[in-house]
């Protein structure tokens, strides 16, 4: 449900997220937040409304968004500049695609 809400918020701002991009981004930002010990402690002591109003929590969200963007850019750069890594990705994605969408897909 949160993923749908995030996609709707971006769509309302003119960004149509297709092909799972919104889901992947939301899960990555959530992962960065949920791994943060301070966020865990804040969550145990505050309601959602209190967290949303907290400058510290907003800083944590900003940090998570920036970290996800940085990681994504670094991964894209690595994949596109390293032929061996790129070929490995192509092979892996080809296998997954054949399993999910190929003749033997369930």
In a nutshell, what does this entry contain?
With 106 residues, the protein is mainly α. It has six helices and no strands.
Per-chain topology:
Layout: H1 2-12, H2 21-34, H3 37-45, H4 48-53, H5 55-81, H6 83-101
Q: What's the Cα radius of gyration?
A: 18 Å
The number of E-state strands comes to 0
Proportion of residues in extended strands: under 5%
Distance between the termini: 26 Å
Largest sheet: none
> How many helix segments?
6
Low-confidence stretches: none
The shape is elongated
**What's the rounded overall pLDDT mean?**
92
Q: What is the H/E order?
A: HHHHHH
Q: What percentage of residues falls in helices of 4 or more residues? A: over 70%
| Oligomer description | single chain
SSE-based structural type: mainly alpha
Structure description:
The protein has helices spanning 2-12, 21-34, 37-45, 48-53, 55-81, 83-101. It has six helices and no strands. The model has no long low-confidence stretch (mean pLDDT 92). The two termini are 26 Å apart. Helix 1 (2-12) crosses helix 2, helix 2 crosses helix 5 and helix 5 crosses helix 6 (83-101). The longest helix has 27 residues, at 55-81. With 106 residues, the protein is mostly helical.
């Amino acid at each position: 449900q949160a993923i749908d809400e995030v996609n709707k918020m971006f769509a309302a701002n003119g960004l149509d997220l297709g092909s799972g991009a919104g889901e992947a981004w939301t899960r990555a930002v959530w992962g960065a937040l949920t791994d943060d010990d301070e966020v865990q402690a804040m969550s145990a002591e505050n309601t959602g409304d209190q967290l949303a109003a907290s400058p510290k929590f907003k800083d944590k969200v900003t940090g998570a968004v920036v970290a996800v963007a940085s990681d994504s850019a670094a991964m894209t750069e690595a994949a596109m500049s390293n032929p061996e890594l790129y070929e490995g990705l192509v092979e892996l994605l080809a296998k997954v695609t054949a399993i999910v969408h190929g003749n033997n897909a369930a």
